[in-house]
Amino acid sequence: MSGNSSRARRQPNLTFDRLLEAIQETDRHWVTRATQAIHASLTLRNWLIGYQIENYRRAGADYARYGDRLMDELAAALRKYGLARCDRRELYRYRQFYLAYPRIAEAPAPFWPSVQSAAKATATGAAPMPPASWPTGKMLIEQLSFAHLAELMEIDPPRKRVFYERECLRGRWSARTLKRKIASLYYELSGLAEDRPQDAEPAPADADAAVSPLAVRDPGVFEFLGLKPREMIDKTDREERLLDALEAFLLDLDYGLCFETRHKYIQIGDAHCFIDLVFYHRLLKCHVLAEFQPAEFGHENIAQLDACVAWYRDGVMTEDDNPPVGILIHARPHRARVEYALAGLDHRLFASRYQPALPGDRELQRFVEQALTPFDST
Fold this sequence. Notes:
- By secondary structure, this protein is α+β, with helices and mostly antiparallel strands.
- The chain folds into two domains: about 15-220, no CATH class; about 230-375, Trna Endonuclease, Chain: A, domain 1 (3-Layer(aba) Sandwich), CATH 3.40.1350.
- About 55% of the residues lie in helices and about 10% in strands.
């Protein structure tokens, strides 16, 4: 016993620096594994939804009752249950994903055996089995996110898609990099595009060594996990406290503003953004979006808020509502600037009807500059 204890105590190679390295390596490994598991689950979830929709289209007993209205009816029904990203557009995309990637059915997934056999049979019948040199379904699930696959499934023909799959895996591209490469005609301009045989150089099989940088803060992942929008963004404590003060100030002014939500997440095309504060104006009968911008004024800021206001106008405004407006507040040390985002609203109508019922820009500017004082003096 004493000999064993002595040997256990004396390990010359186990230094403090080695211990530090080992703990860091352990943390990196398991954070990577956890991130992979989350992304794989989201990818499989979306693929399976696509399979279930397609299977219903082919064999549903009452499919004829819905026909072309299926996606609209399904999206409306799922909305009542609060399922993340199950609007009409996303449901079409999941079905397209399933049809474009029968390889996903090859991936071993013991946690969905009741569906895997039927899904694999359907997927095999939907498209010929790919060459053995193509990246496998397991590799795609483990090393790419659904954001990658959503870009890849739009590519045709399959040879071109596989080219980008391999490059993603080799280069560990982010989804944003992949999108940029596609837009820059990387495939067409590459000397390998026409000459490279389809069975050459299979993509790396070691998931730990080749895994692409998967983003934990992907909005799709956060919605899938049921996390709050406030947890999805990087707001400093200073900014959050300024938003608290701004929210209370706007409500106390008694202009008819009713608070609706904070950090409202919206998706416009493939882009996403958050609106800091959303109010409904009970007198104007319109939404008012307030955005706090701690950086220097830039025209891209007002353009983004304009896009959010237009999104509310096109997707949220009802027949009884008036068009929404946005308020952009730029807060710099000891000074502030206020801009309005109208998204096409007539300026004369805004000046005559909206402005008298909204906080004045100078009033807001004075308040924000006063609110900034305690922070700027520290």
